[in-house]
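Researcher: Structure prediction, please.
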Amino acid sequence: MPKTSLHHHLVALWFADIAGYSARAAEDERGALQLVEILQALSRSTVQCYEGRVVKFLGDAVLAEFPSTELAVRAAAALSQQYAEQSAKSGRVHDLRIGVHIGDVAVDFDGDLYGDGVNATARIEAAVDPGQVVVSEDVWRQIRGREGFRFEPLGDKTLKGVGSIGLYAVTVEDSATTRSVSDAETKTQRGEQRKGKIRSIAVLPFADLSAEGDQEHFSDGVAEEILNALSKIGGLRVPARTSCFAFRGASLDAREIGQRLAVETLLDGSIRKVGKRVRVGVQLVDAGNGYQLWSERFDREIEDIFAIQDEIARRVVEALGLALTEREECRFLKPSTTSVEAYEFYLRGRKLFHKWTRQSVEFARQMFERAVKIDPEFAAAWAGLANTYVDLFRWGRKPRDLEEAQHASEHALKLEPHLAEAYVSAGQALAIQRRYAEAATAFDRAIELDPTVFDAYYLYGRVLFESGDIEKAAKLFEKAQGARPEDYESRTLMAQALTQLGRQDEARRANELAVEAIEKYLELTPDEARPYSLGASVLIRLGETERSKGWTEQAMTLAPSDPLILYNAACNLALLGQSERALDGLERAIKAGVAVGDWITHDPDFESVRNHPRFQAIVKRIAAS
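Model: Predicted structure follows.
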């Protein structure tokens, strides 16, 4: 058993093996292998029907776990009956021996089980006669009074490594067993029928099961790479990282997560790094019923991580019954480094950048710089470095940050001229210098290379809004919604653009949809300030002023010194007609380091103070900087 600390839980278990398998294998190897194939096929369908999980196959045996003793016993009886019928296909009828027990087990990161409970179950199975389903006294106590079960006491048995234990042979009414086997077959058929019709998947954060628990950046990075690859497939909806990763550590079943994310399937997994080896376990789950559609474990050298990511993504595509077009194939996982060490620093940087605070962005910059120092030709890391310098310039207005942003984005493009993300970085670096025409060219190229990149539409829309092309900005925010339907920021900014254009009916509907998107987001991440902050302005436009005040207060409580939160609070005060307080708040936001550039000149939230001398002085001061 692994030496690391594993999660424990109480489960019902059974071991089943084929009676007479060894003798059959000695005389008829082909027939014996067919017996194993029948066992594995029947086990998968029957265990799934009873809400269980096949833990593993061991030659002619199978270990399965269940959430209750009744489900475990019914599944065992169904499998025993069906196997006796199906084994005749091998040329001779064989029976199973199945032992059922309940016990505390340790769960390894790949789903394997360890502990005395597993050992006891295996010992019970070894003491069973062919064709019998035998349960331990602990299981018998759980279900002895339930309808449909008949027990025959077998007395106390002394089992190696277990000691004395009471055993009972159990039979289940034929009607219940037959019905359940039929249900299993029906569900399996339905699963096959669904294949090729599934059009949505959420990639959940992979669990970090390394001994030190310090590889979350790595497990998140691998999951995000797979998510990004799947999002490039036309017709497949993949919720954004922020939505999917909000379920980290959530004690919700697949069906509830699927409902919240509005997806048909879920991909989750776990990663353990030990020295130069990595083990990745993944499973694809039907979010409609919680059943597993596909699972696999990859145990490789760490240098194979890029191949593992690609293989997982392709196996998922295959499991969904989809196929890549030639263009999608070109955009699929294409690592721009072969250095695992550089890649690890890149993943650390990306995780820090997602937090989007001044300190975390500075730390992200350091990680990206270490990545490009190790591999100077790592284009994606150069693009990430450019993004950090753009944001650092927004906060600090230091000319050197702007120069570095320009250099990093240009270098990324030099290394990889077809990297869409690099053009997005270049567009941002140009826009912040007010070189709007050149920025537009860069964003257009990014979209041409990869029309699935959300940031290209969203950030391009922001640039156009800031430069005064409000009409085109609204169209880009709409396209951003198409690339990421659950995103609330693009919906909020589209409503703002429509307001500025004077299209009031469209703006009202856009505001309503923005509030709906924000509310759904807050269900998953109630401790994030930005959705409250942006949503407060939307609520004011919809006439819900009291609720708006509550959201503003919540945003200020969560992030009292954040420059953007302060800016949005000033917007809300202006919308409420509190001119002097709004201007005071705007001054505080600027002092805290907000960098709104030309945005403020087109922001409809400040319409009520547009001609105020203080506001005009602030705009001039910003323009000069």
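Model: Residues 1-5, 175-191 have pLDDT under 50 and may be disordered.
Researcher: Thanks, that helps.
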